[in-house]
Design goal:
heterodimer; A: 119 residues; mainly beta; four-stranded antiparallel β-sheet; 49% strand; globular; B: 112 residues; three-stranded antiparallel β-sheet; 44% strand
Chain lengths: 119, 112
Amino acid sequence: QVQLVQSGAEVKKPGASVKVSCKASGYTFTSYGISWVRQAPGQGLEWMGWISAYNGNTNYAQKLQGRVTMTTDTSTSTAYMELRSLRSDDTAVYYCARARAAAEVFDPWGQGTLVTVSS
Amino acid sequence: QSVLTQPPSVSGAPGQRVTISCTGSSSNIGAGYDVHWYQQLPGTAPKLLIYGNSNRPSGVPDRFSGSKSGTSASLAITGLQAEDEADYYCQSYDSSLSGSNVFGTGTKVTVL
């Protein structure tokens, strides 16, 4: 079955960077893209961006431009999301989700990765 | 920043029908972009519930239905069950933000 498995929880200090991984299985990785979505504690969902696993094209949310980088490794069917210059309001659960294109539906989702930013 | 507005909460007794609205604008829902709905049970990742405005993925009960009209969309749950208690989010695409997916503000469904 189609599955996305994310890396484990992280604790980072303000100003540091974090890199979350999302390993895909059960489908042809390069036929889809991966979107990243985050959810701050007790808050709603925020779309961060999308990357094509076919050619690496990206589409980032304006709010995060310059701080976020999304990449893929087709040899291991894994997507990565790196967020730099972390602030306390970046504390959230980060999800990856399969999406055929930037404007497409997200299905399925990974289990989520909690990133805590604290001094 | 959420540009799709949902009611914060709705509630209903078991067996009743509830609806959740998702109000957008001419740059997202009104521009013809599809609306998708997700269910998020407590402590879990969101799960696709409705795609392409009104389509149910396999395995989703037909108690859930979606519709879209103008700049708004709706999710209806008929025959409400205890296991439907969750947060629900709509999602669409917005052409005004350099091309960006947008989520609704989220609605908590409580089964009385």
